[in-house]
Amino acid sequence: MARQYRPLRGVRVLAFEAAFSLPAGTRTLSELGAEVVRISRPVRVSSNYITVVDGGGLGKPSVSINLKHEAGQALARDLAARADIVCNNFRPHVMAAFGLDYPALRARRPDIIVLQLTGYGSEQPWGDYPAYGPSVEAAGGLNLLTGAATDPPVRAGSGVFADQAGGRYAALALIAALEHRRRTGAGQFIDLSMCEAITHLTGDRALGTALTGALPARRGNRDAVAAPHGVYPCRGDDSWLALSVQTDAQWRALRTLLAASVLDDPALEDAAGRRAAHDTIDAAVRLWTQDRDKHEAAALLQAHGIPAGPVQSVSDIAFDPHLMARGAFAMVSHQRPILGHTAHPHLTTPWQATGRRRAPLPDIRDDGQDNAAVLRRWLGLRPRQVAALLRQGALLPLAEMQVDGTPPAPGAPHDPEFGERLGLPAAGEAAR
Amino acid sequence: MMRVLDLSSGVAGPFSSLLLAEAGADVITVRPPGEPAAVDPAQYAYLHRRKRSVTLDVRRRAGRELFLRLAAGADAVVESGAPGELRRLRLTHRTLRRANPNLVLASITPFGLSGPRRDWQGSELVWQAMGGVMQATGFDGEPPLKLGGDIAQAIAGVNAATALLAAVYGVRTGRERAVHLDIAIQETLPPHWARHISQYTYSGTGMRRESREVGRQGFPHTMMAADGWVYLLALRAEWEAFACFLGLDQFLTPEWSDAGTRMQRWGEIEPAFEAAIAGKSRYQWFADAAQQGYTFAPIHTAADLTGSPQQAARGFFQPAAIGEHEVPCAGLPFHSAVPPHRPNAAPYPGQHGEEVLGQVAGAAELAALRKAGVI
Fold this sequence. Notes:
The complex is a heterodimer. Chain A is of the alpha/beta class.
């Protein structure tokens, strides 16, 4: 069997994190072999259901420090002094109030790497403004790049798009900092803005505006050059095919496949002609797609060398045969059944080292489940010392994760047989 | 200093090496001689700033040999050829490692180096469609919408840069041998709506795009303030407190306390709601909402961004040179302890040919290669 790929083996990360952005980034570090310890509940957290299904807690041992207690803060500082990386995604004043900000941590360990992830960065005027992913997507410029000219600004439908982007940039910044420390011995403080991550991802558009004075054109699903370019309805409810013809050769292949006389017009031989007749072409493509299955239509177009693909729903992605063949999902076995099943698939870090195996993805841990193990490994504490910390109130008692389902949103499609279709082992049944 | 050779084209590969260059790496773009000029000069400038550039035809034997000499002094190579192209070029990871046992190779491809769709053609639209998020973007009863920008490719670039840094760190610290990284652009997008995928795998629940009129909160999240669009997000807000905050006192009576009722009778609320929002500027709403714990935000245009006081306080936009122009350009969303190695300008193709290739070849050899059209 191939060897596990763990380039960050032995790196210790102490994460004061909640919700979705930083957990996404530190989970990447954990999947690359780092030991990421999650300090549970420094402040209010969202519902366990969302925390669990989001998957940000997977693979991270949990220590339940009571940060409101002075002895808890001292314990956190002791752990931080043994960490390579300390990171948090609370508002800037939170860690300072606990005596866990960069100056305090650096005094104990000069080469420490500290990352603070916030919506807008910790400087004023907006450093203390609360933010969720969709707010910073709007402020970062994404909404006014999305949609057609006649649309209002359109938001990403995900809800966690910027959280994930912020997490990705956090992982990048932290690994770059580790490499910098390896070369120079110096630690650093990283102050990351989720809003700026969104702007950086689309920075070419802002640069174009700065250069020409013109705002980027909002074309919906159309393209500045390629045509035809868009989504077309297929058989079934809310079922669509995406198609983008980028070369004249692809156009000729499409024309042959569709065999519609309206497309034989010589004016359509080049992209400019096709852009001018986009509506006419769209109507012909729609006639071809509307009675077809989106997956079959995409496969047929791709067999003719034409870039096309199904617009994938959440369930399409869960069953995507290509993603499955590449091992994009890991089946996470639960320590207790969650919502009636003992294991669920989760997306893993979206890249791989060829010929190597991904590190396994252990289940989310209960708050405080790893108090004894981590405090022994990191600080050499004995069980009775840990018990004393618990009695003293520096550690919070073990809290079992309770996960209650949420009713489906009104109007959302619901698949009552998802468990069987995904092959999820049911509670009370041996895992397959 | 980390040195990276970038053979890639498109957006994802150059964006990955841009991130490395911004974080202080020495990035050398290697492209064949005589390529046509970029269609979009701003995009070219954005993706290639802070790098050096050589033109070198690795398809020719002498060019390939020179490339291997460069690889001997590099930490990593980025490439974006179709699966199988490295074999045709005789530049597989095995060959590269003979030149440099510690060399990390990152292949960025549309659908990856393995799997049933590895030979499918991609495009920004196709990646967004197949990677997700698009199904959820747009409005109920209308087609799904592509997100703006080349965002799927840019995200693939962030992942590739992270993968590459971790791999180089693993090699340099003796934790790992040099690996060949396989980054599929399609695969990097699904995590950006992982929660929704998991809502299906945990509860069987799918997703429907939101209503154009009332969104999901029972009021539109996007409205016109006095000076432009503002984003209204008030998760878990009590209606009474929220209506009071907006100055909609006429809707504080019990008949409006139910969310379903408000959605049904939105037409009666809308005029007053719109008028209230239009009464203040975007930044005023942003500041006032933050005071109450509501997460409003100004909806910035590409032009507004450079004027934001927060970005000014952080020095996020730095001048970049494009031709004779000096224009503000987005930098990394965090302050890097390592200053970038090169100026905030894109080189012309081949600009650093002599200084880079002069390190691995003599003047006479370079002159002969130039004459043969290899460099």
